[in-house]
Amino acid sequence: MASLIAIRDAVALLGIAELNQLSRQFNQPPALMQAMLKQLESMGQIERVEVDEHCAIGACKNCPEGKACVTEAYRIKKHISA
């Protein structure tokens, strides 16, 4: 099984990583990968990316399926220093 550290590192290397992409990369079921990503998110390590920021083709608003192609995507959370 993939560790939370390995998943966080993969997100960092990819910049923006989609749930299904990580699921394939680590050979884990999407439900397990989603739970691990949610755990990293609750720990403040990563953040979920909004749809418009990561649409691969840039046409999600005009998608006839109503954004059916969109999956969850995450990136490393930027920590703001004082």
From TrEMBL:
HAMAP family: FeoC (MF_01586). GO terms for molecular function: DNA binding; iron ion binding; iron-sulfur cluster binding. Residues 4-68 form the Transcriptional regulator HTH-type FeoC domain. This is Probable [Fe-S]-dependent transcriptional repressor. InterPro entries: FeoC, Tscrpt_reg_HTH_FeoC, WH-like_DNA-bd_sf, WH_DNA-bd_sf. The keyword NAD does not apply. Iron-sulfur cluster binds at residues 55, 60, 63, 69. It comes from Leminorella grimontii. Keywords: DNA-binding, Iron, Iron-sulfur, Metal-binding, Repressor, Transcription, Transcription regulation.
